[in-house]
Design a protein that fits this description.
mainly alpha; 3 helices
Length: 66
């Protein structure tokens, strides 16, 4: 099943979420900024690290995607 989700960006919620995750990342010894990590991951095709080929791979395995 394929589902296309849509989201309404609310800056206040994003900021609060980023603050909570930054605390967690800091405690875990990870670089902070969830927002920056997501933007880096999905901001370019290179950030997908091969996931851009997933649809073709599934199609070759016989999965019919619309």
């Amino acid at each position: 099943m394929l589902h296309h989700e849509t989201y309404e960006l609310q800056a206040a919620h994003l900021k609060g979420y980023d603050e909570v995750l930054n605390t967690f990342y800091s405690q875990a010894g990870l670089p902070e900024s969830w927002f920056q990590r997501v933007a880096t991951r999905f901001g370019t095709v290179g950030g997908l690290k091969g996931r851009e080929h997933l649809r073709d791979a599934l199609h070759r395995l016989g999965f019919e995607l619309r």
